[in-house]
Write a structure and sequence with these properties.
By secondary structure, the chain is mostly helical. The chain is built from nine helices and four strands, in the order H-H-H-H-H-E-E-H-H-E-E-H-H. The chain has helices at about 1-10, 20-40, 45-55, 60-75, 80-105, 125-175, 175-185, 215-225, 235-245; strands spanning about 110, 115-120, 195-200, 205-210. The strands form two sheets. The protein has a two-stranded antiparallel sheet. Strands 3-4 form a two-stranded antiparallel sheet. Helix 1 runs antiparallel to helix 2 (about 20-40). The longest helix has about 50 residues, at about 125-175. The radius of gyration is 31 Å and the shape is elongated. The two termini are about 20 Å apart. The relative contact order is 0.10. This is Phosphatidylinositol N-acetylglucosaminyltransferase subunit Q isoform X2. It comes from Bicyclus anynana. Keywords: Glycosyltransferase, Membrane, Transferase, Transmembrane, Transmembrane helix. One of its GO terms (molecular function) is glycosyltransferase activity.
Length: about 250
């Protein structure tokens, strides 16, 4: 991450960015990376204890191991998430500012009371200040977009891996191993019908009751679903919409 930020502070892929603004953002993000390393250095002993505890929890099964990997990924990429939040917020502010200033050029403004767009007449001084502000935001936007795209990719990749791990945990927990064993052994616990037979007897009538397992494995797995909550679906349309509008991907 440190090397990546150093590369972005130069001329990445030959892009000509605003040098002063680029160095300011780069130094600001580098400061957070250094804070993260300082936190890891100060809490190294406690993290070792946590890792030892997680090591023993991994013996409880593959689902525990997958959950531990997901937690450790959230912890290891926390500084990346912080930088992504800053970049997304800055990108959203610039897009909102450019949108508001575009309305200024056509004699419009946003009315928060009505929640709509109203016509408005601006003075020459207001048009001059609006033009300068629009030019500044527009020229600074490529630098912001560069950082925003890079750390948005990190965020989407992290969420994708966490979703895959959650899906694997759900599949393993919802596998009907117990029902399959009962079905293979023809256990009376999953009997489908009751068979009543008359037993011949001189003095009285005797009835023999027998449980018959005649249900298919598909029906049994449908009836005996484990109480496991399915993970939240990965909504790509919502993610793409948030990327273009600068909203945070949670």
């Amino acid at each position: 991450m440190y090397s990546l930020l150093k590369w972005l502070m130069g001329a990445p892929a030959g892009l000509k960015l605003n040098n002063a603004f680029n160095k300011m953002l780069g130094n600001y993000f580098l400061y957070h990376v250094e804070l993260w390393w300082l936190f890891l250095d100060m809490s190294g002993e406690k993290l070792d204890i946590v890792m030892h505890i997680y090591q023993y929890l991994g013996y409880l099964g593959f689902t525990f191991q997958a959950a531990i990997i997901s937690d450790m990924m959230c912890l290891a990429t926390f500084h990346c998430y912080c930088i992504y939040v800053y970049a997304a917020r800055l990108f959203s502010l610039q897009i909102s500012g450019l949108t508001a200033l575009l309305r200024l050029f056509v004699g419009r403004k946003y009315n928060p009371l009505r929640g709509g767009i109203d016509s408005c007449e601006y003075t020459n001084q207001e048009m001059f200040v609006g033009t300068i502000a629009f030019t500044i935001l527009l020229l600074l936007l490529p630098t912001t977009i560069m950082y925003y795209i890079v750390f948005t990719m990190f965020r989407v990749l992290s969420l994708s891996v966490q979703y895959v791990l959650a899906k694997v945990i759900y599949i393993i927990q919802s596998m009907p191993f117990y029902v399959m064993i009962l079905w293979m052994t023809r256990s009376p616990k999953i009997a489908g019908d009751i068979l009543i037979q008359e037993v011949e007897c001189d003095s009285s009538i005797l009835l023999k009751v027998k449980l018959v397992c005649n249900q298919s494995l598909g029906d049994l797995t449908e009836y005996f679903k484990p109480p496991v909550k399915a993970p939240k679906q990965f909504d790509w349309s919502n993610i793409i919409s948030n990327v273009f509008t600068g909203k945070q991907i949670i």
